[in-house]
Amino acid sequence: MPRQEGPLRVAVVGGGPGGLYAAALLKRLDPAREITVWERNAPDDTFGFGVVLSDETLGGIEHADPEVYRALQDEFVRWDDIQIVHRGRTLTSSGHGFAALGRRRLLELLHARCTDLGVRLRFRTEAPPAAELAATHDLVVAADGVHSRTREQHADVFRPTIAPHLCRYIWLAADFALDAFRFEIAETEHGVMQLHAYPYARPSPDLPQALDSARAGETPSPSTRPFGPQNISGSSTVIVEMREEVWHAAGFHELDEQQSAERCAKIFAETLGGRPLRGNNSAWTAFRTVVNEHWSHGRTVLLGDAAHTAHFSIGSGTKLAVEDALALAACVEEQPTLDEALAAYEAERRPVVESTQRAAAASLRWFEDLARTLDQPPRQFAFNLLTRSRRVTHANLRLRDPHFTDTVERDFGCPPGTPPMFTPFRLRDLTLRNRVVVSPMDMYVAEDGVPGDFHLVHLGARALGGAGLVMTEMVCVSPEGRITPGCTGLWTDEQAAAWTRVADFVHAQAPGTALGVQLGHSGRKGSTKRMWEGIDQPLPAGNWPLAAASPLPYRPGINQTPHALDRAGLAAVREDFAAAARRAARSGFDLLELHCAHGYLLSGFLSPLTNHRTDAYGGPVENRLRFPLEVFDAIREVWPDDRPMTVRISATDWADGGNGPEDAVAIARAFAAHGADAIDVSTGQVVPEERPEYGRSYQTPYADLIRNTVGVPVIAVGAISSWDDVNSLLLAGRADLCALARPHLYDPHWTLHAAAEQEYTGPAAPWPDPYKAGSRRPPTGRTDAPKPRLSLTPRP
């Protein structure tokens, strides 16, 4: 829609921080605008207690509205430490730089700013429906919270998805100021409970006088209680959280607000020092993640929790709402039309919000699954908690608190000056010199299954690049088991001889690098074009028959229907695997991995989405495991006993009715019981209708689950792209090895460069003699830091 002639008329639905700040900024930028905020509650009504804002958010506020920034600066409580209380031990990490203030005080400041600017505030007034407001206003800002009526009234356009989660939590307060952000873990007879607490109001500067008055029975004066009648000693937000089943078992569902506060105060008496807790219309609730496909509808735009939510454990709700307000005001000012402004606002904010939601989801799930990490060594547990969202990393924490990080590294077994990724790891008689794995990557350039010069150079380059273990692509065990005509194989002695050439080069020219082979069979995903010719597309000619657990095409109407393997077919495939393993052993491979992931043949047996058999190989997970385990056992029988075997699995199918975390644990446990030395934990690619939750390190929580539930070593994969991620995952105890694929396509010497960037020169990453002159990181050109995005100048 075109920009209206004259000043905008703006309606803001909801008087929380986001709505108020959007109103203030829009008015400040053009004082002629008519802006009204509807808030159904009274001015001093609020839920919760303290709010946390990051330095990044404060920087945006400083540039957009210095007056609000100065007011906030006067109110903030700042602290640097995070304390973690676990099994009677308190561990402290410093250098984190938080800032918080009372939510009520934040609203008072924003009320005052809006009033000074001429924004009309209508309290105790329900806003008219957004459609009605849009008929009389140029812009309707729906900042009406997680239960947004606006969003629900136009759900057909916004298309929200609201996902509940597994924990219950309650917001409470303590009338004293903690000196750190504090996590305390309580292991009760009913289950694990956790406390998140932080200060949001400083003790009164007249505290001695106030205490004397309190002892004399006098009511503290307003100057000694700026945040409430009981807060002469400051105030702290206290959130208590536990899984739903623990909440029920402990009887919290039968308690009112006061009883819940009293019970929580007893459970977490150490943190509270025996002091009480109080509520503020506090109720136990389950967090809900809100996602909307669209954020605007005509003149109406969603902001803050109405548009998106992120779990409180990363302190992002108010932060995101305030940043939304900054971006919305800037886009309205910059764009020629409101349509373009709302599109620009969503385009700018959505990637930031999605990144925050991914971090929040990782943090949320970490706390949901807290019980499985409790047996970790104390400092590793603390490091795991601090890095749970993936936003705080090993390198970041080393900058913040090098002493704490040093102690965690020593506990892990890092020699001085050695990053975690450059510590050795042993599987049977094979000792890997570091924890980096070049993940299997299909190249599709073989002739009749024979690896050629390309494979020699490709794998040889990555072996020279310093990784502890270099894996081949999936090597097929039969001509019918290929994915494409360009796949490598090990069904002939000619192929084995070509692989011997590769193995000899790696062992001679990159001593200390292990070479692993991944054996697999394409199953129903075979007889297709090479990836760059049309992934998963059938060949125009020369197709071969496919075999699978059940006669289900990968994509009906596109891919051919496989035949279901009968007893004779199962036996033949089993022997194909064993014969390929014998050749692999003779070729000189140091490790063998069985491919049971990504919808290929053995994965097809494991997933209920692709295994519809009614015989002994179908049905419950123990039956679906039967044939993959038979293949594993057949290989283990012929594979040298001193050489390790790993198994790659898809830990989730990312699809309704498919395998999920419980199945992954059962599958991993079964392979471990049969002698698997490690589980390579991937996900998905089983059915085309999957819905993966992509993002940085998005598959690693499944490796974490299996490692800390089954107790078997794991290889983590999935968008691990930096050496900082590798160090963080290892040090937190979420993985034993990290496999990287695309980073090694981008940089064959990824591991050596990671060593150079960390100034590591030890035995875990030796540079080949001809390359030593390049072992120092070359200098780069100067780049200027970007200016703040939201520097707003009001109109004259």
Structure description:
The chain has 796 residues and is of the alpha/beta class. The strands form 6 sheets. An 8-stranded parallel beta barrel has the order 19-20-21-24-25-26-27-28, surrounded by 7 helices. A 7-stranded mixed sheet has the order 6-5-11-12-13-10-14, sandwiched between helices. Helix 24 links the parallel strand 25 and strand 26. The longest helix is centred in the middle third of the chain and has 31 residues. It is globular, with a radius of gyration of 30 Å.
How many helical stretches? Answer: 28
Provide the helix percentage.
25-40%
Strand content: 15-25%
Spatial strand sequence of the major β-sheet: 19-20-21-24-25-26-27-28
Radius of gyration: 30 Å
Largest sheet: 8 strands, parallel, barrel
Secondary-structure content class: alpha/beta
How far apart the termini lie comes to 25 Å
Low-confidence stretches: 213-230
Question: How many β-strands, per DSSP?
Answer: 28
- Shape, please? globular
Average pLDDT for all residues: 92
What's the structural blueprint in terms of helices and strands?
Layout: E1 9-13, H1 17-29, E2 34-39, E3 50-52, H2 55-64, H3 66-75, E4 77-79, E5 82-86, E6 89-93, E7 98-102, H4 103-117, E8 120-123, H5 130-136, E9 139-142, H6 149-153, H7 155-158, E10 160-174, E11 181-188, E12 191-201, H8 207-215, E13 235-243, H9 244-249, H10 257-267, H11 269-272, E14 285-292, E15 296-297, E16 300-302, H12 317-334, H13 338-368, H14 378-386, H15 394-400, H16 402-412, E17 425-427, E18 430-432, E19 436-438, H17 453-464, E20 469-476, H18 493-509, E21 514-520, H19 531-534, E22 547-548, E23 563-564, H20 567-587, E24 591-596, H21 601-606, H22 621-624, H23 626-638, E25 645-650, H24 661-673, E26 678-682, H25 700-710, E27 714-716, H26 723-731, E28 737-740, H27 742-746, H28 750-757
Parallel strand pairs: 1-2, 1-9, 2-8, 5-11, 9-16, 19-20, 19-28, 20-21, 21-24, 22-23, 24-25, 25-26, 26-27, 27-28
Antiparallel strand pairs: 3-7, 4-7, 5-6, 10-13, 10-14, 11-12, 12-13, 15-16, 17-18
Helix pairs in contact: 1-4, 1-12, 2-3, 2-12, 3-4, 12-13, 15-16, 17-18, 18-20, 20-23, 24-25
